[in-house]
Each structure stands twice: as C-alpha cells, then as structure tokens.
Amino acid sequence: MRGVVQLSPELEGVQALLIASLALVQRRFADQLRTDLPVVNELCAHVERYHGKMLRPILVLLSGLAAHPDATHAAPESLLTEDHVTMAAVCEMVHMATLVHDDILDEAETRRRGRTLNALRGNEAAVLLGDYLIASAYHLCSQLASQDHALAIGHVSRVLCAGELLQIDHREDWSLDEPTYFQILERKTASLIAVACERGALISGASRAAAAALSLYGRRLGVAFQIQDDLLDLTGEEGTVGKSVGKDIEKGKLTLPLILHLATADQRERAETIRLIQSAAHPNSIAERASLADRLLASGSLARAHNTALDLVADAKAALETLSPTPARAVLERMADAAIDRSL
Amino acid sequence: MRGVVQLSPELEGVQALLIASLALVQRRFADQLRTDLPVVNELCAHVERYHGKMLRPILVLLSGLAAHPDATHAAPESLLTEDHVTMAAVCEMVHMATLVHDDILDEAETRRRGRTLNALRGNEAAVLLGDYLIASAYHLCSQLASQDHALAIGHVSRVLCAGELLQIDHREDWSLDEPTYFQILERKTASLIAVACERGALISGASRAAAAALSLYGRRLGVAFQIQDDLLDLTGEEGTVGKSVGKDIEKGKLTLPLILHLATADQRERAETIRLIQSAAHPNSIAERASLADRLLASGSLARAHNTALDLVADAKAALETLSPTPARAVLERMADAAIDRSL
Fold first, then answer.
1. Residue ranges covered by each domain of chain A
2. By the 8 A CB rule, do A65 and A80 touch?
3. What are the chain B neighbours of A40 within 8 Å (beta carbons)?
4. How many CB atoms lie within 10 A of CB A202?
5. pLDDT in tens, A140-178
6. Which of left, alpha, beta for B300 (phi over 0: left; psi -120 to 50: alpha)?
7. Which CATH class is domain B9-339?
8. ipTM of this predicted complex?
C-alpha cells in the first residue's frame, strides 16, 4: 500500500488483509523466480527492489473482494484464495518485466530510487532478465485452476507490446493526435491494469457483469494513471518522483499536455513549441524543460490534461456503482482518487 | 525441410506430409501474429523471413508421428492433429523470439542472409518485437487442449533464459570448464528442442516412456547441434553459414574447441591462445581468427569437439531404439546425422 492511498479507520480491516496478502504475493513472486543458478538469483534480487506501489497485485486482491458473490456477508479474509495470490504475483511479474525492458528503451538510469539493471549490468542482462520474468510469469499463470487465465495474460501481453511498438512508431511525430495517444495508453498501460481487476473478480466466481465492471474500472484508472505519469515526467523532479524525469521528451514521445497545446496553437506558437521540445530533448536541458512547462501551464494544457484524468477517475468510480457497497469497493474508489493525487 | 536432410525415396511419403504440415504451421504462425496495427504487422513480416530450417516444428511433427501408439499401422496423415500444428508454431515462435533478442545481445547485423531487425530498426523495436513474439507464443499455447503444455513451455522458457544469463556471466572467463559449458548448452539450446520432441509425442497420446525417449533424443541432438554451430562460428565463412560468424569470440564466449584446447595446453600455449582470442575479438580481425583456427586444428581440439558431437548424435539415435521402426523414426535418425554434417 505504501503511499498509494490513505485509509480511514473503518477500512482498516481491509487494509490489514491487504498487507498480509501482499506479503504472500511477494513470497510467491520470489519463490517463482528462484533457480539453482546464483547469477540468476542475484539479478532477481536486484529487480525485486523495484516492487513499488504493488498497484496491480492490490487491484487483483481488492477486485477479488469487491466482486465476490459473498462480498456483503462473508468475512473478507475468507474470500481470498491461493489463486488470487498467484494471479497477483503474475500481474506484478509481467509488469516488472515491462519495467526492466522499458528501462532499456528509455536508457533510464534510475528506477524506484535505485540504479536500473541496464545501467548496472548492461543491456544484455536486462533483455534476458526481462525475458526470464515474462517466462516465469507465464509458467506461474499456467498453474492456476483455469486455463482461461493464461489465455487472458497471454492476450494482454500481446496487446501491451503492440501498444509499445505503436508508441515508438510515433516517436518524434509532432502531429500525433489524441485518438492515437489514447490508443497507446489503452494498450500499453490500461490493458494489464484492467486484466488485473477482471481476473481478481473472475477468480472469486464473480458474475460476468461484475467482472466487466471491474475491467472498465481498471481501464479508466490505468489511462488516468498514465496521464498523471506523463504530467510528472514533464513537471516533476527526480527527487520527488523517484525515477528519471524528462524521459518522454528525450525520447521524442508526445504526451497529452503537448498534444493539447500543439492542437490549439497557432502556426507560430506551434513551430516555437516544436523547436523547444527538440532542444529540451537533450539531457540536462533544465532551462528548456522549465520553459516548456511554463508554456504548457500558460496555455492551460497542463490543466486540461489533469481534467481529462479527473474525468477518467470519475468514470472509473462510476463503473463500481453496480457492485454492492463494501469496504473493498470503498478502497477501490479511494485508489482512483489517489491515482491522480500524486504531487505534480 | 530445405536442406536439413536428404531423404531416400522410401521416405518420401513422410516428407510430403511434413511439407504440407509445415505450410499449415507457417500459416498458424502468421495468423497468430497478425494485429490491427500496421506497424506491428510490418515488423512481423520482416522476422517471418527468419524461418530457416524449421527444425523445432519438424521435430514436433516427426515426434508426433514416431511416438504415436498407432505409428506402425495407421496412415501417417491420420496421426497429426491441429494441436501438433499449434505446438509446432509455438516452438518456432519461442525460438524466433530468442533469435530476435540474441541478435541484440550479439549486435549481429545479418541473420538468414537478411539484415537483423536491430540493425534495421534499432534495439528498441527488437526488444519489443521479441516480447511480442513471446507473448504470442504463450497466448497460442494456452489454446491447446491440455494446460500441461503451457506449463511445459513456460518452464522451458525460464530454463532457456537462465542458460543465456549463465552464458553472459561467463563471458571472458578463460577458465570456463566443460561441465559449465555443457550446462549452458543444455539450457539455452537443448531444452527447447527436447520439449518440441516430447510435446509432439505427448500430443499423440504417446506413453511416458516414448515421450521420455524423444525428449532424450532432442536433448542430445540439441547439444550436438549447438557444438556444430560453435564450430561453424570459429571456422565457417559468412557466405556459407548465412549469418554473422566470429561472434562468439567477439563477445568473449569460450566454446568447446577453445575449452578443450586451453585445458590441455601448457602454460605458455595457454597464455598465447588467450592473447590470440583477445585480439581476434576485434571485428574484422580475419588473420587472427584464421591463426586461432589453425592452432585449434593442430592441437586436435576441433576434431575432438567434432567427435563429441558425433557421440551425442549416436546417443540421440540410440534413444530412438525403444520406438517401433517407422519412416518417421528413420527421418529422425537421418536428421541427427545431418545436424553435424553442415559444412565446416
């Protein structure tokens, strides 16, 4: 939970259950990665430090609670099963594999306040360790009671990679439009978050409708979360955010505030902004980045992007309204609010 | 089949069946990779040209024939199922994912006489496309009748990545010993080939004993195949081999002939060989490579490595003796011979 969301006292029961369950998830995660080869164990120990907010595992567990047919009358701790823990570890492992490979793509040097694997051990180890994480995730997923989960995880991994390929294909495309930007976000970020929610519900034996509601919640939350991430990359400071910032600009990735700004700018402003983006792309171009952020603030593009994220959070919470009111549902609602409440 | 093995007329029935089945495998492969994103389809079309000998699909199909309980009396074309075709496509896809990522690790510029994806489109596209191939393989594998196959493919993918990590951990380790070298080969090459054979047999409803015999065949064949590959990297020419050569030396990988040579050399010869390996590591150091190959030839290390591969081929063929004699078994035997009969 660490900082994702502040809970009021009445929700402390769910919080305690989550903390205990997340400890099991971390143990399953570590057990699954262990091998007879010390070199592999050592690399895995390094990436295990990347465990951050554990957003996806938390969503598997909370969705499993909120969508359970017995959600309103059974004790929450009786509702979570071994399969929930396994699925939570699978989602975290797929996510961590993408982080390890993303750091190669981004040439990032810090992640969760530690050095990235590619910076420490070279791109080769990072490519292979990411592959090892993916393979381990699928292997673990194939141990679940229903094969349907492995099919879903395989599918979402394809979608996720396709989204990242779409993103790099639009690198330095200063005409990137909103629909394409949202397609990229839906695929590369929202898809796995939606599956985490959906699978948590299905493992609980939830109705298709309840699982679909949670999937929609996850999808909207995921997009909101990514917009917030993009805002932080433009306006945040490394010390606060805990990972490299300014990477989107460096890699020629247009994000929502820039897309909104360019779409409404006149010809001259547009040309000047693109020039500024290009000069801000050089590492350590602090002044250019600050000037770009100022421009986005002045045109209202930062605020509009933030409002888009707020609307998505409202949609996410609305999707939960079909579920019975439970402490788990309340925590999911709070998490949606917290997703965009990280310091700008 | 293209060049893997020359068949005598009495085996032409199996050959025709293989050719027809491989066309289905290629179609399933292409169908599985297709998406709604043109950029992804375009990249996939490029790597589909990497289809080479289709060794792993052929082994799934032949094992499915040779280990089938009705192998001796039913028409071969009645023995292969949709699941054999799917598993063959899965094994090829996992293999191709490793090729795409290996080319990043090796910084290779040619593969199967075409330019590598990393050379053409950059490392980022290559990392992501490899991930897309792995995800697609798992997704396809989860569509098989039994979940046991997905578990096996997940497991072997972990073993394979761990083997590659072990290999890079021993880069420029001039004391690499034979047992560790064989551990690396067993994991990174033999494991997937063994699984291709085993799964082909199990899909046919073969006995555990028959599946184990084919798994052993694949394991020995895989190691023999990799030793031959390593020999070609030391002594082959790019025009003949069809891919970059000298890469093992460039990347500081000791292979069997070098390990055998260093293990038996006196102190002075050892020091000189290591110096020669280090200078041969620079690209285009043709003279140094030729001199190194001469030294390995003179000490008998090339011949000893080749003999090790021959012994493994004999073991592979011996493993097939428990199966009923069928045309499919005969082709598997010929393939074992052909594995080390590529031009040195």
1. 10-339
2. yes
3. 162, 165-166
4. 25
5. 999 999 999 999 999 999 999 999 999 999 999 999 999
6. left
7. mainly alpha
8. 0.91
Query: pLDDT tens, A222-277?
Result: 999 999 999 998 887 766 666 666 778 888 889 999 999 999 999 999 999 999 99
Strands B110-111 and B114-115: antiparallel
Judge: B162–A129 Cβ closer than 8 Å, yes or no: no
Which of B90, B339, B88 is CA-nearest to residue B222?
Answer: B339
Distance from the Cα of A173 to chain B's closest Cα (Å) equals: 14
Among B124, B142, B155, select the one facing A150 at the smallest CB separation.
B142
Q: Is A43 in Cβ contact with B101 (below 8 Å)?
A: no
3-state secondary structure of A14: helix
User: Long-range CB contacts (< 8 A, 24+ apart) of B76-81?
Assistant: B76/B13, B76/B14, B76/B17, B76/B327, B76/B328, B77/B17, B79/B204, B80/B17, B80/B21, B81/B203
Instruction: Give contacts of B34 with chain A, Cβ < 8 Å.
Output: none
pTM: 0.92
User: What is the CATH number assigned to the segment(s) A10-339?
Assistant: 1.10.600.10
- Cβ atoms of residues A141 and A33 within 8 Å: no
Tell me which chain B residues have a C-beta less than 8 angstroms from the C-beta of A43: 165
The dihedrals phi and psi of A342, each to the nearest 5 degrees, come to -75, 150
**Residue A344 pLDDT > 50:** no
Q: Dump pLDDT digits (tens) for B198-210.
A: 999 999 999 999 9
Below-50 pLDDT ranges, chain B: 1-2, 343-344
Cα distance between residue B102 and residue A119, in whole Å: 19
Q: How far apart are CA A323 and CA A64, in angstroms?
A: 12
